[in-house]
Design a protein that fits this description.
There is one protein chain. With about 525 residues, the chain is an alpha+beta fold. It folds into 2 domains: about 260 residues, no CATH class; about 150 residues, Barwin-like endoglucanases, CATH 2.40.40.10. It has a 6-stranded mixed barrel.
Length: about 525
């Protein structure tokens, strides 16, 4: 009983990914304990944040990816409206308007956009994967630009950078041409004088201070000077946990949040930094493996964007603390104090786990005994051709071209009266009985799936079967549109074909094989 309970609780959790995250969170709590040594309340608050983040990760890991895709558009629109609300009547804190009051509390919509943006763009490219062109990429760029500009005007340059990176990674992984990238880079460089004029004074000082921190050692350059001193003073082995002088003498500003890496480097040195980098690298490699094995365009783009955005978090924060990049207020992932960023990252990691757990898009249909639909199995005429469906399950085997249902049919009624579900393992056939089951094998790559016949079609002489999106994706011909396959009827409860080796075979004209002698009633299908 305990074992079954444990299996149910860990279902959907990716072991390697969870182990890596656990190690980084442990290092984060240890570092925060030292950074906030004189404020123990922060440590207990962060421990509670970690528990809540792990719960959020567990919930996200159990949600199937298609549910995230279904709510991607509503989530994006909602967060966008919240950003408009921030611009109109948001709270001003430390000179920035970033928080939206909700009566019982306040929320920072820009953090939510870090998730909503890649979800929306991944959904967009998923729906347009068969016809990607300049128009689709231009629309995606517009979807990315609007919230990014709104966040940058709050002003919140760090979050705007992360949102822009998350969206750009989706567009890049969707196949953006290097010509567009080169053109965009050239345009961005040409517009630098304009962008410089848009920046606030304190943002300009951050860039100038990066070149020469000593020009303002007690002002804009103070953060970089003190953090680089702390990083360098750690040496190879570090000064030891709780023994960092820069930390405990309070020279490091924001040492529990944006500059926590300076605390970590001072106390654990080069060896500790190598360990942290190895953990981050392992997490990124695992994320890229999840993206490579993802079954759909949506999950592949989403997993890739999440992983590369995590990489951006780490690089920007470490570069900022080390004096290689300007100070933009990006937290160190899973280590910096703060519940919002930790929750966002944990949700993203939970989505990665969900994608890994559901990497098989849909399992094969399971053949079972079902009463036949007599109405759907009556003789009929379509496009001037007469068809006589089987009235019972019998041997049938044929080869020809298979196509797949377009997304426009999703939710529409089939010949059986059921609604077409593009994510179910179903198919349409002209004469196989409804409902029945068949094995479809791709003759090019050898992949095979078992589908449930619940509709009639395709009514073309060069096609023998229409598969659902899920089945076509499993066979690997979604982008091609069609593939040469073999269709074999199967009996419920068996995984082998009904037809024995000597069963009659029919080859569809135009599929590269001769016709064979099937009963006259089947002739229209050939």
């Amino acid at each position: 009983m305990i074992r079954r309970l444990f299996e149910r609780l860990t279902a959907g959790i990716d072991g390697p990914l969870f182990a890596i995250v656990g190690c980084v969170l442990a290092l984060g709590l240890a570092t925060l304990y030292s950074a906030a040594y004189q404020a123990p309340g922060r440590v207990s608050a962060q421990a509670l944040n970690v528990l809540l983040a792990l719960a959020l990760m567990w919930i996200a890991a159990r949600v199937p990816p298609h549910a995230f895709m279904r709510y991607a558009l509503p989530a994006f629109v909602l967060v966008l409206l919240m950003l408009v609300g921030v611009a109109l009547f948001g709270d001003v804190r430390n000179g920035a308007r970033r928080w939206l009051p909700l009566g019982v509390g306040s929320v920072q919509p820009s953090e939510l956009m870090k998730i909503a943006m890649p979800l929306m763009l991944a959904r967009y490219f998923h729906r347009h994967e068969a016809s990607l062109g300049f128009r689709e990429y231009a629309v995606a760029m517009a979807l990315l630009a609007v919230p990014t500009v709104m966040i940058a005007r709050q002003p919140d340059l760090g979050t705007a950078l992360l949102v822009a990176a998350a969206g750009f990674y989706v567009i890049f992984l969707a196949g953006l041409s290097w010509k567009f990238i080169a053109g965009g880079t050239a345009a961005a460089l040409a517009s630098l004088p304009i962008l410089w004029g848009v920046l606030h004074d304190y943002q300009r000082r951050r860039f100038l201070t990066l070149l020469d921190p000593s020009s303002d050692p007690l002002g804009a350059g103070y953060h970089i000077i003190q953090s680089t001193i702390a990083v360098g003073s750690g040496g190879v082995t570090g000064k030891g946990w709780l023994a960092g002088t820069q930390t405990h003498l309070e020279f490091i500003p924001e040492r529990a949040t944006d500059f926590v890496f300076a605390v970590y480097s001072e106390e654990f040195g080069l060896i500790g930094n190598t360990l942290l980098l190895a953990l981050y690298l392992a997490l990124i490699m695992r994320g890229l493996m999840v993206a490579a094995n993802a079954p759909t365009v949506f999950t592949r783009l989403l997993a890739g964007s999440i992983t590369l955005t995590f990489f951006t978090y780490a690089v920007v924060n470490m570069g900022m603390v080390s004096g290689l990049l300007p100070v933009v207020g990006v937290p160190l992932p899973l280590i910096s104090y703060g519940g919002t960023s930790l929750a966002t990252l944990s949700l993203c990691i939970g989505i990665l786990m969900s994608i890994q757990h559901h990497r098989t898009l849909v399992a094969d249909a399971k053949p079972r005994l079902e009463p036949l639909d007599q109405t759907a199995n009556n003789p009929y005429t379509a496009l001037g051709r007469k068809y006589t469906p089987y009235r019972s399950v019998k041997p049938h085997r044929e080869r020809g071209l298979a196509s797949w249902y377009g997304r426009g049919f999703h939710g529409k009624r089939t010949a059986s009266g059921e609604r077409y579900d593009m994510y179910a393992m179903t198919a349409a056939h002209t004469i196989l009985p409804i409902p029945s089951y068949a094995r479809v094998t791709h003759l090019g790559n050898g992949r095979s799936v078992i589908v449930r016949i619940n509709d009639r079609g395709p009514f073309r002489t060069d096609r023998i079967i229409d598969l659902s999106y899920a089945a076509a994706h499993r066979l690997g011909y979604v982008q091609a549109g069609s593939a040469r396959v073999e269709v074999e009827a199967i009996l419920p409860g068996k995984t082998s074909a009904v037809g024995e080796p000597g069963s009659p075979r029919v080859e569809v004209a135009g599929a590269g094989a001769p016709r064979s002698a099937f009963p006259p009633a089947i002739a229209p299908n050939t």
